[in-house]
Design brief:
The protein has 341 residues and is α/β, with parallel strands linked by helices. It has a single domain (54-324), classed as NAD(P)-binding Rossmann-like Domain (Rossmann fold). Helices cover 57% and strands 11% of the residues. The chain contains 11 helices and 7 strands. It has helices spanning 2-19, 21-50, 74-85, 97-111, 127-138, 164-192, 203-206, 213-233, 265-274, 293-305, 312-340; strands at residues 65-69, 89-94, 115-119, 142-147, 195-200, 238-243, 288-289. Bound molecules: NADP nicotinamide-adenine-dinucleotide phosphate (NAP) and 2-acetamido-2-deoxy-beta-D-glucopyranose (NAG) (3 copies).
Length: 341
Amino acid sequence: MAEQADQAIHAFTETDYWASPTTQVFAFIGLLYVSIKLLSFWRLIASLFVLPGVPLSTFGKKGTWAVVTGASDGIGKEYALQLAQKGFNIFLVSRTQSKLEALASEIQQSCRVETKTLAMDFAANNDSDYDKLRSTIDSLDVAILVNNVGLSHSIPVPFAETPEQEMRDIVTINCTGTLRVTQLVAPGMVKHHRGLILTMASFGGILPTPLLATYSGSKAFLQQWSSALASELAPHGVKVQIVQSYLVTSAMSKIRRSSALVPTPKQFVRAALSKIGRDGGAQGTSATSTPYWAHALMHWAIVNLTPGPMNRRVIDVNRSMHEDIRKRALRKAERDSRKAQ
Ligand SMILES: NC(=O)c1ccc[n+]([C@@H]2O[C@H](COP(=O)([O-])OP(=O)(O)OC[C@H]3O[C@@H](n4cnc5c(N)ncnc54)[C@H](OP(=O)(O)O)[C@@H]3O)[C@@H](O)[C@H]2O)c1
Ligand SMILES: *[C@@H]1O[C@H](CO)[C@@H](O)[C@H](O)[C@H]1NC(C)=O
Ligand SMILES: *[C@@H]1O[C@H](CO)[C@@H](O)[C@H](O)[C@H]1NC(C)=O
Ligand SMILES: *[C@@H]1O[C@H](CO)[C@@H](O)[C@H](O)[C@H]1NC(C)=O
């Protein structure tokens, strides 16, 4: 008897609880929130693993040209190689002529496409270099531009202590260089009513990054600029996209061993070129893609499962991380200099 009564009371209170309008409102909000997140997660998975990107042939036939800056190493070299494998002629631009020539002959042997090279230092911002660049570009039918050249701080450094030269170089190479090259290439694309402009960005542009402040700011600059340009050029049939990336193995990242979170340039570029027009992990950010799957999951999680990239706590955690990296780098430099003596 007592047990039955207990059950009845229990059942009553539970029904009562769920019948309360306040509870219903909260339950509805909760359900809506979870549904939105699930839908967004499903879109992420579809973008990464199910839906194809726009085929590269949309942007130009075989025999049209791809221009790659910072082309002789790392991610830029992979863009050059993989675009050559797709049948595009390749115009390679970076500092070191010998590295450019080695890559050009590697491409010609394996892919039977034409190549051109120009050695220039984007840090010099020299008009005569840009004149040479312009005269070559004007003679080519350029289908694809990859703005890949970039420089980061050599080690994390408080902004006030950043060497002036390093600060200037980052802005000159990453921002000014990208703008000037794009201005040389875009008119031809508009004339042909087709083309693709990819610009390499990094999480440092979405997440304010203490001790890499100048780099972080320059990447954010590129993000805004590229999204604005995308809207300007879309009516002219030209696709503009920022390619977001977390770490990739390369000389710049100083990471040699790849892992799930840190792909090789080859894996990264394959993802980038096969997912043109898909947003990957960069949902809702116009003309932006985070194409590599592990970076995309990370990007999605930062936006959806943390207080967000502009949150003070998230930024402070990053600052402690970079202060540690700086301490270790300085200690290592000291050890090395003692060894050298
Ligand atoms: N690696 C990463 O973890 C990572 C993450 C996010 C974004 N990114 C971005 O991806 C892009 C490529 O990075 P990466 O890791 O592949 O770099 P990398 O391996 O260091 O290669 C840099 C390339 O740029 C050229 N270069 C450097 N400074 C130059 C200058 N002043 N003028 C002309 N060319 C110059 C280099 O050629 P020379 O040596 O012949 O000059 C080289 O070909 C960068 O924009 C970077 O910000 C990289
Ligand atoms: C630019 O490059 C040209 C040709 O290499 C050189 O003669 C000139 O001195 C350079 N200008 C500057 C400002 O460095
Ligand atoms: C400059 O470009 C490099 C390589 O793309 C990148 O790692 C760095 O974040 C960029 N810096 C700025 C300020 O855009
Ligand atoms: C922290 O800094 C790194 C650069 O070392 C950056 O790539 C990353 O996106 C930052 N993460 C957060 C959570 O701010």
